[in-house]
Amino acid sequence: MSDKILTTTAGAPVPDNQNSWTAGERGPLLIQDYQLIEKLAHQNRERIPERVVHAKGWGAHGTLKITGDISKYTKAKVFQPGTETPMLARFSTVAGEMGAADAERDVRGFALKFYTEEGNWDLVGNNTPVFFVRDAYKFPDFIHTQKRHPKTNMRSPTAMWDFWSLSPESLHQVTILMSDRGLPQTPMNMNGYGSHTFSFWNDAGERYWVKFHFKTMQGHKHYTNEEADQIIGKTRESYQEALFGGIEKGEFPRWKVQVQIMPEMDAEKTSYNPFDLTKVWPHSDYPPIDVGVMELNRNADNYFAEIENAAFSPSNIVPGIGFSPDKMLQARIFSYADAHRHRLGTHYESIPVNRPKNEVHHYHRDGQMNVYGGIKTGNPDAYYEPNSMNGPVEQPSAKEPPLRIHGDADRYSHRIGNDDYSQVTALFNLFDDGQKARLFANIAAAMSGIPQEIAERQLAHFDKVDPAYGAGVRMARQTMDGREPAISVTPQTPQQAAE
């Protein structure tokens, strides 16, 4: 144990650096949690000028066509039957810098901006349905492990596995990352997910919880580590080449759009926390509903202006779509927009690619990037609100239903009483022998050189998922080290492991 006391930047002792301050065990967050706000705001300013995360990206324009009918769940015009909405997509790696190779094993960002008639709706997700952490308090710490070591200026597998082994909630995402799906061949050959739990609300004021899924219609294709090494040896821009080149040739990629719907009060009945970003909703309980098709069909005319300047934020919602008590989502509502204010300027949404297609009226004044020379109210005398100068006024019909909360405000431990293993077991059981063998080998390679103490701590988590999981990784590590396994075995099936 260290004898150093963790403090705020002002020198005050930090009583809890693991759990956000929430209203009730499930949240939402309290803005009085100044330690969380400081942590997130500081992270957004750690690197300039590229994005702190998701720096390397590829994007294109397209359309969202709604073919299904979910109007009973949401009043959002973007989801009404027959609607066609212009949109922009940006895919990215998480950890790499601007010059990183595209074909690296990493989570892929899946950011979408829909230019609806009611304003911009942004869905900022990943190619995985879960994430490494469930409390935003740990997000800056996690990202530090993915970036360069402050002394060596190199990536640190030790830091990565040290954090993961001390954070069992990461198991679900780690297993996906190290599986075949952790290295898609192109942006077109991967799914996208909103990942978080969001909410729909309808004209009757009823709220439903919702998960968004974008299923590739090109099929899943993945590289092994060895294949990716060969690709990177030839080009660092393989994703950009595939996406840009395909669209130029008229090969427009498509994704089937689906939603999972949960009645509001079901959240009190599930055995898992449905607002936990490390969990999925079983399809057997909440089957995906087909909504429409997303198609990318136009490349940017200028990459910097239309893709690099694109600013996506979960805070951009429209009437009929809302948030949930998801602690990670609640923090991202603040941190994404704040990152754009830092990176692009205060009025970043005035940049053409971020500008809504409908009319915009607001009372924000002056500041960096104000290209209008004033506020957008239609009347220079209406620079405050309320006013008698015919300035823009609020629209009560856009108010969403109350968000149910309960419980006392406290820093609740998100690890106490939380099952971080059973959903990973279910995922592991879906893999065939070949997929498991590659999973074991990928993990063994990623663990190369880390301290044995950290490796054993992580292996103990794999054992809890399934004894065959831990045994398979141990055998792969021994083989990679040039040692014969202590006991020569083949990876067991879940049934064999149970026996």
TrEMBL record:
<dbReference type="GO" id="GO:0042744">
    <property type="term" value="P:hydrogen peroxide catabolic process"/>
</dbReference>
<dbReference type="InterPro" id="IPR020835">
    <property type="entry name" value="Catalase_sf"/>
</dbReference>
<feature type="active site">
    <location>
        <position position="54"/>
    </location>
</feature>
<keyword id="KW-0349">Heme</keyword>
<comment type="similarity">
    <text>Belongs to the catalase family.</text>
</comment>
<feature type="binding site" description="axial binding residue">
    <location>
        <position position="336"/>
    </location>
    <ligand>
        <name>heme</name>
    </ligand>
</feature>
<dbReference type="GO" id="GO:0004096">
    <property type="term" value="F:catalase activity"/>
</dbReference>
<dbReference type="InterPro" id="IPR018028">
    <property type="entry name" value="Catalase"/>
</dbReference>
<feature type="domain" description="Catalase core">
    <location>
        <begin position="7"/>
        <end position="393"/>
    </location>
</feature>
<feature type="active site">
    <location>
        <position position="126"/>
    </location>
</feature>
<dbReference type="Pfam" id="PF06628">
    <property type="entry name" value="Catalase-rel"/>
</dbReference>
<keyword id="KW-0376">Hydrogen peroxide</keyword>
<dbReference type="InterPro" id="IPR024711">
    <property type="entry name" value="Catalase_clade1/3"/>
</dbReference>
<dbReference type="GO" id="GO:0046872">
    <property type="term" value="F:metal ion binding"/>
</dbReference>
<protein>
    <recommendedName>
        <fullName>catalase</fullName>
        <ecNumber>1.11.1.6</ecNumber>
    </recommendedName>
</protein>
<dbReference type="InterPro" id="IPR010582">
    <property type="entry name" value="Catalase_immune_responsive"/>
</dbReference>
<dbReference type="InterPro" id="IPR011614">
    <property type="entry name" value="Catalase_core"/>
</dbReference>
<keyword id="KW-0560">Oxidoreductase</keyword>
<keyword id="KW-0575">Peroxidase</keyword>
<dbReference type="GO" id="GO:0020037">
    <property type="term" value="F:heme binding"/>
</dbReference>
<feature type="region of interest" description="Disordered">
    <location>
        <begin position="1"/>
        <end position="21"/>
    </location>
</feature>
<dbReference type="GO" id="GO:0042542">
    <property type="term" value="P:response to hydrogen peroxide"/>
</dbReference>
<dbReference type="GO" id="GO:0005737">
    <property type="term" value="C:cytoplasm"/>
</dbReference>
<dbReference type="Pfam" id="PF00199">
    <property type="entry name" value="Catalase"/>
</dbReference>
<keyword id="KW-0408">Iron</keyword>
<dbReference type="GO" id="GO:0042597">
    <property type="term" value="C:periplasmic space"/>
</dbReference>
<keyword id="KW-0479">Metal-binding</keyword>
<dbReference type="InterPro" id="IPR040333">
    <property type="entry name" value="Catalase_3"/>
</dbReference>
<keyword id="KW-0574">Periplasm</keyword>
<comment type="function">
    <text>Decomposes hydrogen peroxide into water and oxygen; serves to protect cells from the toxic effects of hydrogen peroxide.</text>
</comment>
<dbReference type="InterPro" id="IPR002226">
    <property type="entry name" value="Catalase_haem_BS"/>
</dbReference>
